[in-house]
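> example.struct
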């Protein structure tokens, strides 16, 4: 009998303790009532006959919403993979246990339906599905969803940290083909514009080079003209000087020439001009 009682005591002692890990928050529920005390990172003792220990994951979590539907004003529907980063607020665990239930019930009854409701509300102003490919539109949707969901769900104990849109946006095939053709046409236009810009730049460069050559030619012609004008001016000045010198200049040049000839020993006789002009014959006697 003592062994049976000892065995029952040990079993009761073992089953009346539970470990609450880090990142987990627990509360006790006894006779249907949830206590206000929360437990985390500790061993919790309880009476398994009257009390349950309810545990909630309060670490950062991520939930995928695959193929979330987005209907736009053109009555077309796109399907987008979206992900929510959230956490259960530890201080709200007693409220959740009392009014909502388990963590699974919290997600099923509060997080999921509110997400789809807010998604429809946030995207109803989109005029066409191709707007979903615009990065600014995506950022706006993500920001609005995060703010609205966080405001809506915080009172239930869910903190929404971020809503993210996957880059894999699924559209009806005819829409995909139309968008693809539109992008191809836009690319062709860009290519043609780039070619036009290239030719325009080349033409402008040709004009600049031609203008530079023309300017150089003008400068060369101006230089030639200036040199010609300088030579003409020099000749004109020399002519004027010669005309002013007259016969005196000629006689001076003759004397200079005679001096040079007088130095020649082979010369016998030189005569320049005549007696009337003041130049006498000069006899150069041979020294032999």
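> example.seq
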């Amino acid at each position: 009998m003592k062994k049976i009682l000892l065995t029952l005591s040990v079993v009761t002692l073992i089953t009346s303790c539970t470990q609450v890990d880090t990142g987990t928050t627990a509360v006790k529920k006894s006779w249907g009532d949830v206590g206000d005390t929360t437990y985390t990172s500790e061993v919790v003792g309880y009476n398994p006959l009257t009390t349950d220990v309810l545990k909630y994951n309060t670490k950062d979590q991520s939930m995928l919403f695959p193929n979330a539907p987005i209907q736009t004003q053109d009555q077309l529907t796109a399907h987008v993979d979206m992900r929510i980063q959230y956490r259960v607020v530890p201080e709200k665990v007693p409220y959740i246990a009392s009014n909502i239930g388990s963590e699974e019930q919290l997600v099923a009854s509060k997080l999921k339906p509110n997400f789809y409701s807010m998604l429809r509300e946030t995207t109803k102003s989109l005029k066409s599905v191709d707007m979903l490919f615009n990065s600014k539109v995506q950022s706006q949707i993500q920001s609005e969803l995060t703010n609205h969901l966080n405001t809506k769900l915080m009172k239930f104990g869910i903190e929404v940290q971020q809503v993210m849109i996957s880059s894999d946006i699924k559209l009806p095939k005819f829409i995909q083909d139309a968008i693809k053709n539109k992008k191809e046409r836009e690319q062709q236009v860009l290519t043609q514009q780039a070619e036009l810009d290239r030719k325009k730049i080349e033409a402008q460069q040709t004009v600049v080079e031609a203008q530079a050559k023309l300017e150089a030619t003008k400068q060369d012609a101006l230089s030639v003209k200036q040199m010609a004008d300088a030579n003409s001016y020099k000749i004109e000045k020399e002519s004027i000087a010669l005309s002013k010198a007259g016969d005196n200049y000629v006689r001076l040049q003759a004397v200079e020439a005679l001096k040079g000839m007088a130095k020649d020993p082979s010369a016998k006789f030189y005569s320049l001009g005549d007696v009337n002009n003041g130049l006498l014959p000069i006899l150069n006697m041979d020294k032999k």
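> remarks
Strands lie at 17-20, 24-30, 33-34, 42-45, 51-57, 61-71, 77-88, 158-170, 269-270, 282-283.
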